[in-house]
Structures
1.
Amino acid sequence: MAVLGGGRKPNPAALTYVSEGSEIEGNLKAAGSARIDGKVKGSIIVEGDLEVGNNAHIEGEQVKANNIIVHGQINAQVIASGKLHITKSARVEGDVRAMSLDVEAGAVFVGRSQTGEPRALPQSTKAGQS
């Protein structure tokens, strides 16, 4: 009996799509890029880029991808290894971490943000010194 998929490796160029009206309860992992237009209750881990559509609603522990563009609603920690773009129609509630962060006027962002590579300050650097 053959194994489903024939032991092939996932295609990194593949697109995972959750359409409007669809609901997922549980964690979602995608090897390529993904677009979410439905509802997801759980964490989302995407190896490629992620786009969250206008009517999408994500609620979970974590949303993680390379580049992320948000038009809809996310209630989770958001981690982008590249760029996180929050558009004017978006609502993000949760802490975010990204190499670069772009928040359009009109967007709602409730949480803390960390951008760039996380680096500890050198021990000799203290506030108030020149």
2.
Amino acid sequence: MDARQNITSDWQDSANVLLGIALFISPWALNYVAETNAALNAHIVGAVITLLALAALFAFRVWEEWINAVLGAWLIVAPWVLSFSGHAVATRTSIAIGIAAIVLALWSVNEHTSGHMSAGG
């Protein structure tokens, strides 16, 4: 399967790339860059989600999806652990992207491990 077929057949990973990028730029786009803990978390986790999803597009490994699912879970609890739950926009962004990352990662794992994905795409 070539790279173009991978990107279209593994749409969950393509969506996770977009989610990671959105998370990375969200402190600037949603104006919470001054909320240091939230912004740094968004930058780091967004970059990692993006890189893992890109890697999964070209050489799928189940562990990449599980790490993205764990990062999604982290995003859900991060506002309270990192003490930025008082900033509504940062909190909602973290939780929403966390939930989406978990759903997409688990969906991708399910498709790859249940036989829905064939060698031809």
3.
Amino acid sequence: MVLWWIGNIVLLVVIVPVLVALLNRVLAALERIRGATDDILRGGGALAAELDGVPEALATTDATVADVAHGAVRYAGSVGKLLG
């Protein structure tokens, strides 16, 4: 019975404070992660508001690429005739 009481005292004096300290570290890390995710969410919301003009810009880019491709084909044809 004495060993049982010694085991209980060791449990209360050594193991429980270690577990509380470890739990405290885990909860602190969790709070840091929560703060980081909140920052990411705010940044993503601000970024989403800036993306309203992207479809029009992509349409302009697509038209420009088509014009450049047409010009490149004409240029290559002319160079082919000169070298040819």
